[in-house]
């Protein structure tokens, strides 16, 4: 009789785990196996953060795009500020595009410039920061780039693992913030955490959205206009924003295609590129899907995915002086537009399609050529149409894709403090966190 009870208990436990792994459509989904969240942590040694008492690399379990339990990693930063009586609040930082290769994972690299500015500000006030690498970055499996559900589940599982491991050190309340891919991820996190009373709101800088519309409709006209001005001004090819921006969009498309393979292994992303660009798109995947080139590479720019496309665009236009940047044979527009797998991905990964009841602050540069301002305006309008009660769009005049969130660092900090006060009684000098005077914000209105 005793053995039968044990067997029954094991059967029920296994069934519960199976249902948890497959429960993609449940609004109460937590993104993790509740019985196996935190796994381990190690000291982060790639860089230093001045206001952090410790920086760890946490390994935890999440449910991946195939519905299976998989390992993931996240940076966890504790402040030097004394713990509040009721525990630290948590801000989840969701990073922008880095690539799909394991070497691109933020926990395998120095702290990014945009992340550092906000991280130092939040740590100074006494917040704990949890920064997920996302599924498949730095851990086995292909990173499902721009997959909204995967990004959100990476964040939710990381928060749950931190709560499980650190216990009473954490208050339980948390918010999300991110830029570019991370802006999209932050909005996705808000969707998935909408019913979580401990989740207090989202910050999204230049959130990636409407990739298909940008590539097929918005970019051609916008980049043609920019190119006309650059040609008239005699700007060399290597210094043209139009060339760099189109190379970046092609890199995004390649990473998107590789990312789809994470859950559609038979998908051939090469089909959405023309013959000339196919070998370049392959650099995104590498030989295994885990050793592809990163989006950028400061140590050796020639080994960046953007640079691979940019160099070939320049060669093409040099060899064909009568051609314009959008004449470059990059994407196969018809295949991209009509490929069922791609179209399903674009629909499933579009943020802002569900009502969000928590406060949302979206920062967007008006001169952004990667995520154009009108695209984000439309996203915000749709959220408002859905009845989202508190969504604010902050246009940063003349700011580029990477400038906006830096130049609004003080406003982002104030938004987080307003929705979720750190409760540490620390007063941070606004002048120390106002990055509008930073060299990255030259020419941008404060």
What is the count of DSSP helices, taking H or I runs of 4+ residues? 14
**CA-atom Rg in angstroms:** 22 Å
In terms of DSSP E residues, the strand content is 15-25%
CATH topology of the largest domain: Rossmann fold
The CATH class of the largest domain: Alpha Beta
Major sheet details: 9 strands, mixed
Mean pLDDT: 92
The run of helices and strands is HEEEEHEHEHEHHHHHHEHEHHH
N- and C-termini, Cα separation: 73 Å
CATH architecture classification of the largest domain: 3-Layer(aba) Sandwich
Question: What strand line-up does the widest sheet have?
Answer: 1-2-3-5-4-6-7-8-9
- Quaternary status: single chain
Q: Could you name the ranges where pLDDT drops below 50 across 5 or more consecutive residues?
A: 1-29
Give the tags.
single chain; 446 residues; alpha/beta; Rossmann fold; 2 domains; 9-stranded mixed sheet; 9 strands; 16% strand; disordered N terminus
Written overview of the protein:
By secondary structure, the chain is α/β, with parallel strands linked by helices. The chain folds into two domains: 48-210 and 354-441, Rossmann fold (3-Layer(aba) Sandwich); 211-347, no CATH class. It is built from 14 helices and nine strands. It has helices at residues 2-22, 113-125, 148-166, 181-192, 211-232, 241-260, 278-285, 305-319, 333-338, 340-348, 373-385, 404-407, 409-419, 430-433; strands spanning 38-43, 52-63, 69-79, 88-94, 128-132, 170-179, 199-205, 360-365, 391-396. A nine-stranded mixed sheet has the order 1-2-3-5-4-6-7-8-9, with helices on both faces.
